[in-house]
């Protein structure tokens, strides 16, 4: 038995090396090869169902002309094909391939499969914004196995139903296309898309048949497509990427600080679209408010404005590859800026449902976080906030991140105080809206100070503290607590704040926006809802806190005269929230 297993392993390794040699990919596991080994069996069944079953059209190699060498199936004799995929849908086969990749490969390259309902929704959203039949190229610059193009190809073929089959097959290559660096995925995608053309191909008389075209190509999706697309669809790779000095100069108009792969794709697509063309992207929501995307927001607003935004909610069981970020379908049109942006919610828990939210407006300073409603009852909050011109800085407040990175100071941490120690404020101490000592953190409650620590790590004046990270399931995004003079005295007159806490301090201790008022503002239901409307991340950043719209001085004076119990209702009322 052991010897048989060793032979099987040797054959599998040989098959993997054979594929790598043909495709230049180092990412394929035996599981991935088992998926690919099922493709010839799947193809024969699709060909038979399409009526293209003569001796010349059963095999993939006979039917298609690939831009790269296909698999040498003789080298796969050690790989058992996935029989459960022989009758799979194209979507299921593509999903099986992505899931079969090692998680480290998916994470490193930011690869994620697009669920069929989202692929269909993205195409319908793009076609709706375009408002007419696409007359040029429909393109996916990060196509993977081509699943975003599948709805577009099906719609395009349906529109050609009255055209001669040979003319349809001659025109499809200039109408549908995509590019990706994953050679195996491109090969698979070409097969899956070609299978959609089999019914048309079968109508061509045998003597006049030509190989089915390969619609996808291996290459850099950031490079220009064959022609400016009328419609671009994409689920680009995610994740930070380190840019060379030359690339940073090239992308400096859309990159601020760290560069993210999907941000680069959004910028490239905007540049490459035909005038009046439409681009729809399935992307994380972080670009709507994050500081690293401020230049990208400004560039998009100026060149390819956001027309439609759909928030994908209740996503449990939707993404088979573990996508955790809040996700949106964003559709842009190249040209003149619209008067408003349509906002919707798309629910993906069991079945697809749409909810129209209403219209949002981008700020005049488009590099700022985009304040857009997340649900229909956010509309009055957003409308009220758009009239507010004040921000924290206008009232003398600044926001910074807690300076204590605890694991860099482990030797200085202790459960017991000393003459040279200060208490540490941990993020867990802010739960419930009041500063308290979380017992779970008391084993690391004190920081023993060195001489140089006083200047950087110690806070000796009143502040308002806000948790920097929250879980998606938490009912509130803003968890704040006031560190006023009385509380600071109780904590020893000075503290050190760890880096999972935002620290808001004022240069005007007796100003209109006191720590009491600011903490009440951040604790209110209205401002918590408002904050969600200008961020796409579960992280609470200093940048987005600084962008919160605040009322004018007259309102703050009125609030200052109110008792603490009356403040929440007064704040909610000014921000247009009726509970």
What does this molecule look like?
There is one protein chain. The protein is α/β, with parallel strands linked by helices and 579 residues long. It has helices spanning 2-23, 30-37, 39-50, 60-63, 90-100, 103-109, 116-130, 149-159, 165-171, 183-201, 245-250, 261-272, 294-303, 379-385, 453-457, 485-490, 515-523, 525-533, 542-546, 553-560, 567-574, and strands at residues 138-140, 176-180, 216-218, 231-234, 240-241, 259-260, 278-284, 306-313, 327-333, 341-347, 353-360, 397-401, 413-414, 421-425, 446-448, 463-467, 480-483, 495-497, 501-506. Helix 10 links the parallel strand 2 and strand 3 (216-218). The chain starts with a helix and ends in a 5-residue tail after the last helix.
Write the layout of secondary structure elements.
Elements: H1 2-23, H2 30-37, H3 39-50, H4 60-63, H5 90-100, H6 103-109, H7 116-130, E1 138-140, H8 149-159, H9 165-171, E2 176-180, H10 183-201, E3 216-218, E4 231-234, E5 240-241, H11 245-250, E6 259-260, H12 261-272, E7 278-284, H13 294-303, E8 306-313, E9 327-333, E10 341-347, E11 353-360, H14 379-385, E12 397-401, E13 413-414, E14 421-425, E15 446-448, H15 453-457, E16 463-467, E17 480-483, H16 485-490, E18 495-497, E19 501-506, H17 515-523, H18 525-533, H19 542-546, H20 553-560, H21 567-574
Parallel strand pairs: 1-2, 1-4, 2-3, 4-7, 8-10, 14-18
Antiparallel strand pairs: 5-6, 7-9, 8-9, 10-11, 12-19, 13-15, 14-15, 16-17, 16-19
Helix pairs in contact: 2-5, 3-10, 5-10, 12-13
